[in-house]
Amino acid sequence: MKIVCLDLEGVLVPEIWIAFSEATKIPEFRITTRDEPDYDKLMKYRIRLLKEHGLGLPEIQKAIETVDPMPGAKEFLDELRSLTQVVIISDTFSQFAAPLMKKLGWPTIFCNELVVAESGEITDYRMRCTPSKLTTVKALQSAGCETIAAGDSFNDLEMIKAGKHGFLFRTTDQIRKDYPDIPAFEEYDEFLAAIKEALKD
Questions:
Q1: Consecutive sets of 10 residues in the chain, 201 residues long: mean pLDDT of each?
Q2: Which domains does the chain possess?
Q3: Residues 7, 15, 152, 156: which is the catalytic one?
Q4: What pTM value is reported for the model?
Q5: Hey, is 93 helix, strand or coil?
Q6: Of 9, 91, 152, 158, which residue is the catalytic one?
Q7: Burial, 13: exposed, middle or buried (Cβ in 10 Å; 0-12, 13-18, 19+)?
């Protein structure tokens, strides 16, 4: 059985933290896993920055309400789901993901959890498992699934390389340069065509 594992942000929807940065006019929130490969370091930085500015989950969720899937993402996902099983494996949080999953037609997602005080302050985060994406892909493989994975950032590389086929989608020039052996795509039609070929293998 083949299963396609997709990253969420940068592949199907815009980066949530960049949308939040634009909403708050605080440029420091623009840093993502494309810029900082150490996820724990990145999240501690974000939590500290939120506290400094007196911002919390309600403000982030308000920004997420304005985020729509990338043009063509839902159509791509709908067609892919008609061909094979698809799971989104993301380092985002359940408190962020629900409105985005609704706009994408409720695909399956594995993600993490925020620790939130009654005041709405984000005090910590809990990873579902570590390393979350690679561990999830290996668990699917141990259950008899052959994985095909795709993403755009540093934290996607392990799951991309772990399967029989892996792809980069709208990644950075640096990642493309550092990993020339991983096929990279910019448009959904060519991306879908590559996955279809991988499904035949």
A1: 96 95 95 87 95 96 95 98 97 94 96 96 93 94 97 94 96 95 98 97 89
A2: 2-12+69-113+127-200 (3.40.50.1000)
A3: 7
A4: 0.90
A5: strand
A6: 9
A7: buried
